Amino acid sequence: MASKKTIVVLGATGNQGGSVVETFLQAGQWSIRGVTRNPNSEKALKLASRGVAVVTADLNDGNSLDAAFADAHAIFIVSDFWGIYGDPANATKPAQGETLNLWAARTEKQQLVNAIDAASKVPSLERLVLSSLPNCSKWSREKYTHVYHFDFKAQAAEYAQQAYPNLWAKTSVFQPGWFLGNYLSNPLVQPRRENDVVVFASSVKGDLKLPLIAPDEDSGPLVKALLEDSPGKNLIAYRQWMSLEEMVEIFAKVTGLSAQYVTLPAGEPDLPLPEGLKAELDDNWAYFNECGYEARDDPTVIHPNQLEECPKLGSVREWIQQQDWSFVAKAN
Ligand SMILES: NC(=O)c1ccc[n+]([C@@H]2O[C@H](COP(=O)([O-])OP(=O)(O)OC[C@H]3O[C@@H](n4cnc5c(N)ncnc54)[C@H](OP(=O)(O)O)[C@@H]3O)[C@@H](O)[C@H]2O)c1
């Protein structure tokens, strides 16, 4: 029997990478190497118990990535901007005058460059799948230049294209859409109960169609479909293409609660955020409204139904049904 090919998965303990691991475990035809900084975490130990070869490496350390990527046939690279931004150990690292969000994005880009450099040195590599996001500065024609956690990911992809044409020729780009889980865990967009109504509010236009994804369920099937397709595809990854008004209508039907989506004026809500992050998020929502989450002017972007084999994913309705909404279900 031919030996199995090896896929190396960064972020194996996280949403995207965890879903990639799960899909390839179920497919059964691959050896899976899962990368973590902490092989003794509960999640890493669980992966090991299920047959994943758990290896220790850090995106900040190129040598550790060289070892983790050795002899790989496929590599999935993902970085974690919010983990870098939110780590208290990083709070004092920006130089004077530099905002923490800019420093975090520069650090994230360097991590991606480290991983791309390491992937370029793997002779057995057949496919790299890079988790990225659009360059908002470029696609807004320099109107929205503060969406660093998008732009610097895109700059890393541009680096791969320019520095390693051979590697780029075997690369696919995976651009995850808007995480549905933001409505459960992100205080910036979580719904609030106002009298008897559950209000979802942001300055993203209510009728703008967005790529909605459950990254912990959908990333794996979409990454596998990308990997089985020809290289060079740039996928906007989602389970449903839907506006937030439509999503909230489904929420109301599923939960039986009165619910409403409110489009706030640009710059709202005026939350007490660090100045740099406020500017980043204001630009982020305005960019979505004008250019589309996926950069609708980017001619290289494809949608899941343009993949050779579009996987069957769950619906937004199913995702809403499966969640615990008790934090907004009860009156205060
Ligand atoms: N929120 C959204 O709507 C949205 C939409 C699109 C894209 N994104 C992007 O998604 C990314 C986060 O992805 P996710 O949700 O899949 O991640 P996640 O669930 O937050 O997990 C982060 C993963 O990254 C690993 N990791 C973090 N720092 C590392 C390092 N220095 N070296 C090696 N591994 C490291 C962690 O592994 P260990 O802790 O085990 O080492 C963990 O597996 C962010 O960059 C964000 O910008 C978010």
From TrEMBL:
Record CDD domains: NmrA_like_SDR_a
Top-level taxon of origin: Eukaryota
Record keywords: NADP, Oxidoreductase
InterPro entries named in the record: NAD(P)-bd_dom_sf (IPR036291), NmrA-like (IPR008030), NmrA-like_oxidored (IPR051164)
Gene Ontology MF annotations: oxidoreductase activity
Residue span, NmrA-like domain: 4-295
A GO CC term assigned to this protein in UniProt: nucleus
Gene3D superfamilies referenced in this protein's UniProt entry, alphabetically: NAD(P)-binding Rossmann-like Domain (3.40.50.720), UDP-galactose 4-epimerase, domain 1 (3.90.25.10)
Family: Belongs to the NmrA-type oxidoreductase family.
Protein's UniProt name: NmrA-like domain-containing protein
Originating organism: Cladosporium halotolerans
